[in-house]
Structure of Tetratricopeptide repeat protein:
Amino acid sequence: MAMFGRRRKKGTEGGDRPSVDGLSAERAVEAADAIVRLTTAELERLTRLTQEAYEQGVRQQVLPSRARAALDSFDRSAGYLDELCRARPDEPELWHMRGALLYSRATTQLALGLPGAAVTDLGACVDAYERSALPNASLLAADALIRRARAHGEAGHPMAALADVDRAIGAYVTAGAYESPHPLLPDFARVLALAAAVQLKVGDTDQALACARQSLARYQDLTRQRGGLGREEAGYMADAAGDTASRLEAVRGNWDAALAVDLVVREAAEAGLGGLGQALAREGLHLRLAGRERQAGPVLARAEALAPGSVAREEELAALPLPPSLAEALAAGEELLRDERDVPLPPGEMTRLRAELTGHESYSASVRVRMGSTFAPKAALLAAVAELLLREGRVAQAWRVALETHLICDSIVRRAGDEAADLLPGLAGPWRDALETASRAAVTAGRDSFVEDVAAASAELRATLGEKLGEKPGAALREA
């Protein structure tokens, strides 16, 4: 049977599109009562039609003007593949085909501004790859997870987005891709670049910068090993890792580091890999902000000549405020604890915990904590600090501490496997409290999508506690 390859994965983000027949997540094409009998000729015909429609969609999705046509082609391919799946529900190759098609369709959905539809398809994609029995199934699933993280981020769901980031990075680390050289180096560089963009949008700026730096270092390794980058690789390097690193280095006043990134991005653009006008605008602005006016002038003039309005766009972007990192939020909590006499939490404990969680480079929640079995009392401290921050009107800081507490608890339980039942009794209370504070912070901030995100995380916690500890659903989380 013909197989789909892992084709282009260039895509941006997007909104909602109703599920269509074919490969929607809710449709159980593998159900026994749906099995139909097809002749060999019919199976070959459906396989050919599935492949042809898929390949047509792949060709179309390269052109922004043909994105809607690409989506129609993928939908048509999905219908044919549905028929194949009903006939051969246990065929591993069909699960691989299903995963590849869902991934490509989600990429187009993101480009069309449909993140809700992309989240649904990518969730089914993860399931399909995991059921494909391929040797690299976990990494194919990780690729879908990092793309779903971007979709969740566009939909305004930070908890879901950052949990996917953690799982995707973890899969590549488990495969040893952190070493260089490594066969997975290009893939891991891309995953880190996308993780940086997600962290910058809805996560922790310190982790965003760490991911971006690591991604850029790996792209530099690739450039040395191969003499250059492909167009798609250069896109991830410049648009995700480079954009994130340049902006955050500049915010910190690390001008040499910011300008070094700008140089890499500009050189790629001069080689035809990216927009040169925008790259020059970013570099010229940073030169000016660094006090190098004489160097900045010609660069900014050239940027404006190539891309009118590019300098103004960069100035607007540079002026956007960034949310507090976990380190900054915990520092704010320490400050409040020094003046708060009604809270039995010594500031020294908070100082030590801040150093433990943020004093080293980390890329996602799993890297923050080395010993999950000892985290329960620390989770209680974090939940109390989040509540204190919210009570004192530090809404953004309260959200950050509560969000990170949830992410760490989730990563600990997920990695614990069968031992999760031993950890949950200690974690459950502070985990609930953190989610309640996160919900109230989201309501206070007027972020409806964040409220939805917390509600979904709370439902997952209820299910986990019910499964592992036998708690009744209503007991798992007090409604905020």
About this structure: The two ends are 52 Å apart (CA to CA).
